[in-house]
Amino acid sequence: xxxxxxxxxxxxxxxxxxxxxxxxxxxxxxxxxxxxxxxxxxxxxxxxxxxxxxxxxxxxxxxxxxxxxxxxxxxxxxxxxxxxxxxxxxxxxxxxxxxxxxxxxxxxxxxxxxxxxxxxxxxxxxxxxxxxxxxxxxxxxxxxxxxxxxxxxxxxxxxxxxxxxxxxxxxxxxxxxxxxxxxxxxxxxxxxxxxxxxxxxxxxxxxxxxxxxxxxxxxxxxxx
Length: 224
Hints:
This protein is 49% helix and 13% strand. The protein has helices spanning 8-21, 37-51, 75-102, 124-144, 163-169, 172-184, 192-202; strands at residues 2-5, 28-31, 56-59, 106-111, 149-156, 214-217. Strands 3-4-5-6 form a 4-stranded parallel beta sheet, with helices on both faces. Helix 3 links the parallel strand 3 (56-59) and strand 4. The longest helix is centred in the middle third of the chain and has 28 residues, at 75-102.
């Protein structure tokens, strides 16, 4: 298994945890910057050379664009987020699909956000990117099904016990919105351990007939 990300220290910590859980499995960290095409290509070149191919690809990056009213938005940041959130995603899916096809099929799993599914004030730019992620998931699923490649999407809202959640909670206005959401979510806001089993299922052969699906994990906050 290859884990990729921008921060090497975080990657090393992830590998250490994985190796404790599965000591006989090969794990490797590759530093990648999704903003750079050469870095994206290098990551999958490593996978092909060192792992002999690719059975499944999981794409999980933060939503990117900041929230807030559109009239106050930083459109330069939005353009940058759009390139990473959709442009880099499309590139990675294209490259990954080529490798997965060589193995006779497999799965692609993309993480999005319910901001692209349920409209709310102050999230117009985030919603623009995330709804695009969902549209790409559905269309790509149909394109790749004849190659036995499945494409699905997990769409959380707020995920507690994560670095991003902790950063959001340091902003008072955002913290109040999260606390309100937590009260409305009858099952409680999810944590990574609530999402990981679903991710493992969707990229496994057990989900061999599931493709093009957007699955929300939000504790009952919405039912779109």
